[in-house]
Specification:
five-stranded antiparallel sheet; 2% helix
């Protein structure tokens, strides 16, 4: 076990960005999917100018916020920004999209409605009939990340490191009446091999209207991957590698 206050406390921690406080800035949601703090998280307000963050204004997310709403009392295995994929959401703050479940009850996507009040998770929408791209419910084998365009349309990438399959679900929309999701699926690659990655993030890197991907390796190598050809032949191409803290 790492010493209290060690940087190793953040090993395996997931961090996503979004306007979770509802003040128009990009905030940070830090989440522990495992370990002694499993299920717990915190929202750190953004400051809009890139300097050190003031954690005194942070809002804690206790584990029972998840377990009290999930049908099986589970915490998420992964989290992603859900934006406003559900048209019935509170428009002031984004929702969350998670991979949830367990070996006994199975795995599934789950949509947590907008916080409304920062740090308060409302009811969830378990998407237990939405299968992965291979037609099964093996959601624990897929890594997800999301982005939204200027019109608010949500895009969801799904990557299976074991099979090297990469999919993009465009215009991902939640129907909270029937607990279902609709989308247009694109098989971007059946042999995507980015190597070991600790972080997978979606963004329109080159501003062409098609979402792309950023990957970060365990050694801090960052690569931007451009997606193209969705209307004809989908493809993904690597950009020039860069380093977070200088080449190692």
């Amino acid at each position: 076990m790492s010493p209290q206050g060690s940087s190793a406390d953040f090993d395996g921690t997931q961090v996503i960005t979004g306007q979770f406080i509802g003040e128009g800035l990009q905030d940070y949601l830090v989440y522990h999917p495992s370990g002694q703090d499993a299920g717990e998280g915190v929202i750190v307000p953004g400051n809009g100018h890139g300097s050190f963050l003031d954690i005194t204004g942070s809002t804690a997310i206790p584990a029972d916020d998840w377990t009290s709403t999930d049908p099986n009392g589970d915490i998420p295995l992964q989290i992603a920004n859900g934006y406003h994929a559900d048209p019935n959401d509170n428009p002031s703050t984004p929702a969350l999209l998670t991979v949830s479940g367990d070996a006994t009850h199975g795995y599934y996507l789950e949509y947590y409605n907008s916080f409304g009040t920062p740090g308060v998770i409302f009811t969830s929408v378990p998407l237990t009939t939405t299968a992965t791209p291979d037609g099964t419910m093996d959601w624990n084998d897929w890594q997800i990340t999301t982005s939204a365009d200027a019109s608010g349309n949500v895009d969801l990438f799904l990557y299976n490191a074991a099979t090297h399959n990469l999919y993009l679900w465009r215009d991902f929309t939640i129907d909270d009446t029937n607990d279902t999701a609709s989308f247009t699926s694109y098989h971007v690659s059946s042999h995507w091999r980015p190597g070991p990655i600790t972080t997978l993030r979606a963004a329109d890197i080159n501003g062409d209207g098609t979402p792309d991907l950023w990957t970060v390796s365990p050694k801090g190598q960052v690569i931007g991957w451009l997606v193209s050809g969705l209307a004809t032949r989908p493809a993904i191409a690597a950009g020039h590698p860069q380093w977070l803290l200088g080449q190692s």
